[in-house]
Write a structure and sequence with these properties.
The chain is of the alpha+beta class. The chain contains twelve helices and ten strands. An eight-stranded antiparallel beta sheet has the order 1-2-3-4-5-6-7-10, sandwiched between helices. Helix 1 packs across helix 10, helix 2 packs antiparallel against helix 4 and helix 3 runs parallel beside helix 8.
């Protein structure tokens, strides 16, 4: 998540975890997952960029007033009963110097409300609890978390607006596209940036109801470099091809409304990113994932991001409605918990936002919001050949086309 978007949005993760990490497309490949990028290579690149940021911070004796150190810490945030109408600095928009910042924040705030309202209606029992905070130099966030529901054990939808700055060395180390993210900055000067995003993870009770994750975000440097990123992906414990056709079909329709090349490109990107390298399998069954998107008019990309985030409930809700009351056995529940263990492994080992947040002393409740309340690890477990568990394991090891 360019300085490459990877590192910038990892900083957002320390205020509102759940933002998906940024995936560039390295040349290294996993041996068994054809066409799948190795997260190990991406993690090594990310660690180098993190080290560069830490070294640059040590070498800079003087820090800008609005420049948080690499270790941001929860004590840089002030809890408030209610977030202000906008977390964007007044001079930034919508009529200021950076109108897209305010527009994107307004769009995702509306999406946070509509999505949580819809999830509460489907659950029928639990309500989202909201925690809000602000930062002295601008920005802040709102975490909405539902727990102990009739349908969802845990669901979180987090919004974050971040103002900060990072060393140019970190920008150079983390940017694989070669973009000059330090445009307009003097040598050695830290690069001020803005990041705004909405992220979500939902863990249902029923093993036949899949986990779902999304995040949509916008980045901008004060030098005028900007880009969009995001995506929505699904993680079932059991394979239902009709569900996958619905989920992927919904997002193919979204993509096709904006560019016919988006879906095949972003579907492949999701398949490449969400790989548990040490298991040689994917976390789930993908969806769409994109980053560093600035190849056309920002207005067109804004409308695409808006369409995508507003399609979360149409893509996911019907699947939950169809299966929330399905009968299941204790054995099937145990399998779901083992797959949740895989979810935990990915998030703690490969998710750049999580890794950065844990290394930099961010707010732990926000960083780990994405994790399920319960998970299971069973020693040397292998599904019985020909079983439903073996069927979905094959899909985790060999990416499939659903539409």
């Amino acid at each position: 998540m360019e300085l490459s978007s990877a590192l910038l949005f990892a900083i957002s993760a320390v205020t509102a975890k759940g933002f998906a990490p940024i995936a560039t497309v390295p040349t290294a490949r996993s041996s068994s997952l054809q066409g799948t990028a190795s997260p190990t290579v991406e993690k090594e690149s990310f660690q180098r960029s993190l080290l560069a940021a830490q070294l640059a911070n040590k070498s800079n004796g003087k820090k800008a007033v609005d420049a948080p150190p690499v270790n941001i810490g929860w004590d840089s945030h002030q809890a408030v009963e209610k977030a202000p109408d906008s977390l964007v600095r007044p001079g930034d928009g919508p009529d200021g110097n950076y109108p897209m910042r305010a527009r994107f924040e307004k769009m995702i705030r509306e999406a946070q409300i509509s999505i949580t309202d819809a999830i509460e209606k489907i659950d029928g029992k639990a309500k989202f609890q909201e925690d809000s905070w602000i930062r002295a130099n601008g920005g802040g966030g709102m975490s909405r978390v539902l727990k102990d529901g009739a349908v969802w054990e845990k669901a979180g939808v987090n919004l974050s607006v971040v103002y900060g700055s990072m060393p140019q060395e970190a920008l150079q180390a983390a940017t694989e596209r070669g973009v000059d993210r330090a445009k307009g900055m003097a040598p050695g000067e830290r690069v001020p940036f803005f990041a705004c995003g909405l992220s979500c993870v939902m863990h249902p009770r029923n093993p036949f109801c899949p986990t779902m994750h999304f995040n949509y975000r916008y980045f901008e440097t004060d030098g005028g470099v900007w880009w969009f990123g995001g995506g929505t992906d699904i993680t079932p414990a059991y394979l239902n091809e009709d569900d996958m056709k619905h989920f992927h079909g919904t997002y193919k329709e979204v993509c096709d409304r904006h560019d016919p090349e988006f879906y095949p490109k972003f579907k492949a990107w999701a398949d490449k990113y969400f790989v548990i390298s040490h298991r040689n399998e994917t976390r789930g069954l993908g969806g769409i994932f994109f980053d560093d998107l600035n190849d056309r008019d920002p207005e067109k990309l804004f409308e695409f991001a808006k369409d995508a985030v507003n399609s979360v409930v149409p893509a996911y809700g019907p699947i939950i409605e169809a299966h929330k009351d399905d009968p299941f056995t204790e054995q099937q529940k145990q399998w779901q918990l083992m797959r949740r263990g895989r979810y935990v492994e990915f998030n703690l080992v490969y998710d750049r936002g999580t890794v950065f947040g844990l290394k930099t002393g961010g707010r732990i409740e926000s960083i780990l919001m994405s994790l399920p309340e319960t998970a299971r690890w069973e020693y040397d477990h292998h599904p019985e050949p020909g079983s439903p568990e073996a069927d979905i394991m094959d899909a985790f090891k060999h990416a499939r086309e659903w539409v």
